[in-house]
Design a protein that fits this description.
The complex is a heterodimer of chains A (about 180) and B (about 260). In chain A, helix 1 packs across helix 6 and helix 6 packs across helix 8. Chain A is globular. Helices cover about 65% and strands about 0% of the residues of chain A. Chain A is mainly alpha-helical and about 180 residues long. The longest helix of chain A has 26 residues. Chain B is an alpha+beta fold. In chain B, helix 2 packs across helix 3 and helix 6 packs across helix 7. The two termini of chain B are about 55 Å apart. Classes of the chains: A mainly alpha (about 180), B alpha+beta (about 260). At the A-B interface, helix 1, helix 2, helix 3, helix 5 and helix 6 of A face helix 1, helix 4, helix 5, strand 5 and helix 10 of B.
């Protein structure tokens, strides 16, 4: 195994923790699960450091690891054990002190985010917070670009306070109440 | 999909800078001519600023100390200086010889770890991981343990937890025995299991560690799930998939 790649991954991990956690929270909707997911991601990244392309984006690589652990391991286990995914509405909590002056407050948006189907939440985070292009998001999710577009449009409508419309996308992820 | 939905898709792609040049020109032409389409664009755009704030809030909310600590747990094995490792390994080997063959053993163990490490709640876990590497499926005894509930109860009392066979039974694992050890003067109880041919240990140390939620780490090639509650530190360790170790740990966490 290449020691330099190991070192590159090890030393880069700490700088990515916050964004990994935000992604983990967005996927799982639960803080304790997000903690576990970030830790499992770090562990896997170190084990697989030799697969990291030196000089490429560590954040994107880590995100794809986190995503694969969530979908292939943790989420399936939680569903098997009947835990399901948690209602993110109550766990994406918001400190009122951060309230800001806009027509729609960040607090409202956070609550609305928590109520979005997971597939929409994830698309919103990766495209709007992490700067993924539609194409990059589509590749990561393994879906057509059109699906990314409809998820983002549906999410924007919901975040603007419009009711979610039924459609084929609604069956993906968990629709919380 | 109706026309309004199609327009929403176009408007969102437009806002996101993901529209083709030709479509952009066409959309701009329509926007200039259609006030309701402009209103719709503004409605969809209104989400941008609060969304940015919401994501910033989530980032600020990150439990950094906890994540840093768990990251340290993940990268720690490499950080251990080689000579300390060798000393501890030697101590662990002597200790291991004392232990095995009986389902119920009381042994004394003084780790050769340097005193600077004593305070670390990690050091006992690391030591256990190191002697785990000496275990085989027969190390805990070849058959299901005959330890009585009375013995489990006594052992449990030494580390301050309530134990019996029912609480310790784990689906799919054969319970092979219990050993009371000590780590730097603190009682350390180890329950041995075998999963087919893989030894798995559940350890309880009475060390007044502060409460900690379940975390996993890779130690000496083993997967270890650790937590702490009411002054007791717990660990489940074995060469099983992380999922499995975590599931076993959660079961024990719920019961003990």
């Amino acid at each position: 195994m290449s020691a330099s790649r190991q070192d590159e991954v090890r030393s880069g991990l700490e700088g990515q923790l916050a964004r990994l956690w935000r992604y983990a929270l967005t996927l799982s909707g639960a803080r304790d699960v997000a903690d576990d997911l970030v830790q499992a991601t770090c562990l896997r990244a170190i084990e697989r450091a030799h697969q990291f392309q030196s000089g490429s984006r560590l954040d994107r690589w880590l995100f794809s690891i986190l995503r694969s652990i969530w979908f292939n391991e943790i989420r399936s286990r939680r569903i098997r054990t009947g835990e399901g995914t948690l209602d993110a509405g109550e766990t994406l909590t918001f400190d009122g002190a951060h309230e800001i002056e806009t027509n729609i407050s960040a607090a409202q948006v956070l609550r609305a985010l928590g109520r979005l189907p997971q597939a929409q939440r994830e698309a919103v985070l990766l495209v709007y917070a992490e700067g993924y292009s539609y194409r990059e998001a589509a590749e990561l999710f393994g879906v057509p670009i059109g699906t990314i577009m409809s998820r983002l449009a549906a999410a924007r409508r919901a975040l603007a306070g419009e009711p979610q419309r039924p459609g084929k996308e609604m069956s993906e992820g968990k629709t919380t109440r | 999909m109706n026309e309004a939905d199609d327009d929403d898709l176009r408007l969102v792609a437009f806002l996101d800078g993901e529209i083709s040049e030709a479509e952009g020109i066409e959309l701009n032409r329509r926007l200039a001519a259609d006030p309701s389409l402009r209103r719709r664009l503004e409605e969809l755009r209104s989400v941008d600023a609060p969304l940015r704030d919401a994501f910033a809030v989530m980032l600020e909310d990150t439990p950094m100390p906890r994540l840093r600590a768990s990251l340290e747990g993940v990268v720690a094995p490499r950080a251990a200086p080689a000579k300390h490792y060798a000393l501890r390994w030697a101590a662990a080997a002597t200790f291991a010889v004392l232990l095995f063959g009986a389902g119920f053993v009381v042994a004394r163990f003084t780790a050769a770890a340097p005193s600077a490490e004593v305070a670390s709640s990690e050091s006992w876990r690391q030591t256990v991981a190191e002697y785990m590497s000496l275990y085989t499926s027969e190390s805990f005894g070849a058959a299901e343990a005959t330890t009585s509930n009375r013995e489990f109860e006594t052992l449990g009392q030494r580390v301050g937890v309530t134990l019996d066979r029912e609480r310790l039974s784990l689906a799919g694992l054969s319970l092979r025995g219990a050993e009371l050890l000590q780590f730097h003067g603190a009682p350390l109880l180890q329950i041995g299991y075998v999963d087919e041919a893989t030894p798995v240990a559940f350890c309880v140390l009475r060390d007044n560690e502060v409460d900690a939620s379940l975390t996993t780490a890779s130690r000496e090639g083993f997967v270890a799930a650790s937590w702490a509650k009411d002054g007791r530190s717990f660990m489940v360790i074995g060469k099983l998939p992380q999922d499995r170790i975590v599931a076993l740990a959660r079961t024990l966490q719920d019961r003990i």
